[in-house]
Write a structure and sequence with these properties.
302 residues, alpha/beta, 7-stranded mixed β-sheet, 5-stranded mixed β-sheet, 12 strands, binds zinc ion
């Protein structure tokens, strides 16, 4: 795995999130787990070569951050925000997370098939949180502090993990660095507040949920990407475009690639991002097709 700074390791080159761990004077703290089974087993072995694992922290409930917990069962607690815990591998109408994890096996981890549990076995004990908290939580482990900051927006139970002694923050998917942002069921207003909260931290290193390790400069870039999406879809609503028209016309596919191993999801991301924002924005101010209203963009075209 890649060393971010002394005692801090992450993996940005796999399909799935950037699973990470921090070595302290009293064992290791793991932050998110690899979605691919053989990679989860390998990462656990590597982490334990530095000392016993003390905690496993998850940053969000999306499958690419939590499925690998299954391979990290042990005598150390799993730490989840309450809103993450409530959604842990829950099957929603638009996504069956177990099926999504299974789909990746033939192409991305064929050797993982042998240790991929059937649905019943998996759900009997997926290794979800045993320490469940609301608000923020601070953990002292050896000579390190792990400040778990509730930073909702991308998901309701989103957590950033700040380790002041190493001047690093693990943001989960509050940051997509150099790859497509998944809006899905996000709350963009909360998300921007989360970015602004993370910006108050005195850190040198930002480990994003996806994409390469970076610096706090990425926070302004992520905010711009979110605001560009909102501006484009709110303009579509102002023009009176239907949901389908908005999906067909509003698209940021040319801005970034999709993160490793998920290029085939590009259309899905663009469609869901546009559709979810259209749903939210029209719920607040319903779309009113009217030739008599000079829209912001339309007015400039005359
Ligand atoms: Zn993710």
């Amino acid at each position: 795995m890649e060393q971010v700074t002394r005692g801090v390791f992450t993996e940005t080159q796999l399909r799935g999130c950037n699973p990470s761990y921090v070595v302290t004077s009293d064992g290791v703290v793991v932050i998110d787990t690899p979605q691919l089974p053989t990679r989860a087993v390998e990462m656990r072995k590597e982490a334990e070569s530095h000392g016993p694992i003390r905690y496993l922290i998850n940053t969000e409930h999306h499958v690419d951050h939590i499925f690998g917990n299954y391979y990290f069962k042990g005598d150390f607690p799993v730490v989840n925000h309450q809103a993450l815990y409530d959604r842990f591998m829950v099957v929603f109408p638009d996504l069956d997370p177990y099926e999504y994890a299974r789909e990746a096996i033939p192409s991305d981890d064929p050797d993982g098939a042998a240790i991929f549990p059937d649905r019943e076995t998996y759900y009997a004990d997926p290794n979800k949180g045993s320490i469940v908290f609301t608000g923020d939580l601070s953990l002292s482990v050896g000579d390190h502090t792990f400040r778990l900051l509730h930073t909702p927006g991308h998901t309701p139970g989103q957590v950033a993990v700040h380790v002041p002694e190493r001047r690093v923050v693990f943001t989960g998917d509050t940051i997509f660095n150099g790859c497509q942002t998944w809006l899905m069921t996000s709350d963009v207003d909360q998300w921007i507040a989360a970015l602004e909260r993370i910006a108050t931290l005195d850190v040198d290193h930002v480990v994003p949920g996806h994409g390469p390790v970076t610096t706090p400069a990425v926070l302004a870039v992520q905010r711009a990407n979110l605001l560009d999406w909102v501006a484009a879809v709110s303009d579509a609503v102002a023009r009176g475009w239907s949901r389908d028209e908005t999906i067909a016309r509003v698209n940021f596919a040319d801005r970034y690639p999709v993160d490793i191993g998920q290029g085939y999801m590009m259309d899905h991301i663009q469609t869901l991002n546009a559709a979810s924002l259209w749903d939210k924005l029209t719920a607040a101010i319903p779309v009113k097709p009217s030739a008599e209203v000079a829209t912001a963009v339309g007015a400039g075209e005359t």
